[in-house]
Amino acid sequence: DSNDWELVRTCPVPLLLSRGRAWSTRPRFAAAVDVSDEESPRLLQRILRSAAYLSEGCHGELDLVFGERTGADALTEKTHAAKLRTLAQEVQLAPERVWRLTGDPATTFPAFAAEQKPDVLVVGALTHQGRDTGHVGTLTRTLVDALDCDFVLLRPRRFEFPVRKQDGVAGAALAGRKSYSSGSRAGTPAL
To answer: Of 14, 71, 87, 142, which is the most buried if we count CB atoms within 10 A?
Structure first.
């Protein structure tokens, strides 16, 4: 709902959006990366490393997923495949754990999720470099709405968030102060 999207827009830390269902005994994590030149290399690394960390910590499985839009020339496809192999090697992923989905990602990712059933998709929460805003990217928003899995949303570390100090409770929290409502019990933060 709109409250969720406001949290996505303003949260200064990685954010887990949960559907409220239990994960598999051996949870499956999928790192959705964009190895094209449009994606920030730092965000790509953050997505991959975070997904690998979560997978290892939960004794889970990890898939690396890239959506290749239809119409890419042979050289571009070869370059993307090489980047995917390099990324997979960084986290010691077997080739069968690397997925290159061809077509419109808004269609191919839901098909991938229906077949592979990841418990969590780790994804960037921004539009592509040069167009970073406080809003979640169009594809990310489409996937959050379409897939039946949890999401970890990440931004580049140096992202400027739209919350300001004068925004009341949120501003106080960002400034490192606790905020309490006058009607709350002692030591209980106001929500």
So the answer is: 87
Contacts of 79 (CB under 8 A, 6+ apart): none
Q: What is the DSSP string of 118-129?
A: -SEEEEE-S--T
- Percentages helix, strand, coil for the chain (3-state, rounded to 5) are 40, 15, 45
Put residue 91 in one of left, alpha, beta given phi > 0 → left and psi -120 to 50 → alpha: alpha
Q: Running DSSP on this structure, what letter comes out for residue 38?
A: T
Strand order in the sheet with 28-33: 15-17, 150-154, 120-124, 28-33, 61-68, 98-102
The per-residue b/e assignment along 81-107, b for 16 or more CB within 10 angstroms, e otherwise, is eebbeebbeebebeeeebbebeeebee
80-114 pLDDT per residue, tens:
999 999 999 999 999 999 999 999 988 999 999 99
Taking 50 as the pLDDT cut, the residues of the chain under it are: 127-136, 165, 167, 170-191
